[in-house]
């Protein structure tokens, strides 16, 4: 890290779409101790536009950005198929990296990332499971872990996107959307996933299989339902409820306006994840930068990303007719213990 970076971490951002641009804005406006120094996107015009907003330079390629002298850490918000190779490049260069989910498009890829990090003997990867930083989820987890709800018997999760990406696939509903629940449920309950069964609504042949509902089983015996829709139309909506032997607890809407008009009374539902999880993204990026400055890794690790991929792979297998599929259990390497 450069002399200036004893107090400032110079961040290179790969991917300047909606997620990458939002991260650039958050790093620039809200995170102390960080400065966006370089931006790269496959779209040169988009690269220049987002870089200018941050006072950063436009990098000619991802490879040039990762190897640059003015980049101390890398944030990967590129399309999913590029995640693995970019993270491996960062590990090869000894650079801390925050990679948006999923860590890789399959379990073999995420295992390669884990193996590369283990070979280096140092945790450098953080995965962008931002819900772990959301104040409402943090509070719910603390309540569950306090024992105030008694023994957890069940949980119910709803995850609805307003509109699917044009490239959305039936498998992607699990690998790209439900993967948030596949990570946050075992974290929330402190209880690994043991098995998954996926049910999809009947749709015309060849159509996107949306809505999908998964039944997750945990090692301790809790049952969790997860409903995911990527075409809810009305907005971006997230719910989570935990049911215990001594009570229940659920997330309450932390954002939005209450409106009464035209004979209706209710809450305005936001249109996307950036607004809903604005505080989570700020906390996530602040924790990542502080961890780099203190050489103290925080947040979801490459191992967490791999375990979520194992669950997602089992879910895809179930979607394609396998019924109940056990989630493979792999011993946690000491680096992640």
From TrEMBL:
<dbReference type="Pfam" id="PF01408">
    <property type="entry name" value="GFO_IDH_MocA"/>
</dbReference>
<feature type="domain" description="Gfo/Idh/MocA-like oxidoreductase N-terminal">
    <location>
        <begin position="9"/>
        <end position="128"/>
    </location>
</feature>
<dbReference type="Pfam" id="PF22725">
    <property type="entry name" value="GFO_IDH_MocA_C3"/>
</dbReference>
<dbReference type="InterPro" id="IPR000683">
    <property type="entry name" value="Gfo/Idh/MocA-like_OxRdtase_N"/>
</dbReference>
<feature type="domain" description="GFO/IDH/MocA-like oxidoreductase">
    <location>
        <begin position="137"/>
        <end position="249"/>
    </location>
</feature>
<dbReference type="InterPro" id="IPR055170">
    <property type="entry name" value="GFO_IDH_MocA-like_dom"/>
</dbReference>
<dbReference type="InterPro" id="IPR036291">
    <property type="entry name" value="NAD(P)-bd_dom_sf"/>
</dbReference>
<protein>
    <submittedName>
        <fullName>Gfo/Idh/MocA family oxidoreductase</fullName>
    </submittedName>
</protein>
<dbReference type="GO" id="GO:0000166">
    <property type="term" value="F:nucleotide binding"/>
</dbReference>
<dbReference type="InterPro" id="IPR050424">
    <property type="entry name" value="Gfo-Idh-MocA_inositol_DH"/>
</dbReference>
């Amino acid at each position: 890290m450069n002399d200036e970076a004893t107090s400032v971490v110079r961040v290179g951002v790969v991917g300047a779409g909606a997620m990458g641009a939002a991260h650039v804005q958050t790093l620039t406006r809200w995170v102390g101790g960080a400065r966006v120094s370089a931006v790269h996107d496959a779209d040169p015009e988009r690269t220049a536009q987002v870089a200018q907003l941050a006072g950063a330079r436009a990098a000619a390629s991802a490879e040039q950005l990762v190897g640059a002298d003015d980049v101390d850490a890398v944030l990967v918000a590129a399309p999913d198929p590029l995640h693995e190779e970019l993270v491996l490049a960062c590990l090869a260069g000894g650079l801390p990296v925050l990679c948006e989910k999923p860590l890789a498009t399959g379990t073999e890829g995420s295992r390669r990332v884990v193996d590369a990090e283990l070979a280096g003997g140092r945790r450098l990867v953080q995965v962008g499971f931002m819900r772990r930083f959301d104040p409402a989820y943090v509070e719910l987890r603390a309540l569950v872990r306090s024992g105030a709800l008694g023994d957890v018997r069940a949980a119910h999760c709803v995850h609805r996107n307003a509109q699917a990406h044009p490239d959305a696939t039936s498998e992607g509903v699990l690998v790209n959307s439900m993967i948030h629940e596949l990570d946050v449920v075992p974290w929330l309950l402190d209880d690994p996933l043991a098995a998954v069964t996926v049910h999809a609504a009947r749709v015309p042949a060849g159509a996107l299989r949306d809505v999908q509902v998964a039944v997750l089983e945990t090692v301790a015996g809790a049952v969790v339902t997860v409903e995911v829709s990527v075409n809810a139309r009305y907005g971006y909506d997230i719910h989570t409820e935990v049911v215990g032997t001594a009570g229940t607890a659920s997330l309450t809407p932390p954002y939005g306006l209450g409106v009464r008009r035209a004979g209706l009374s209710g809450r305005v539902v936001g249109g996307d994840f950036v607004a809903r999880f604005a505080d989570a993204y700020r906390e996530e990026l602040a924790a990542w930068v502080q961890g780099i400055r203190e050489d103290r890794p925080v947040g979801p690790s490459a191992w967490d990303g791999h375990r979520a991929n194992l669950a997602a792979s089992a879910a895809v297998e179930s979607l394609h007719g396998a019924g109940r599929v056990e989630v493979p259990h792999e011993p946690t390497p000491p680096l992640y213990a």
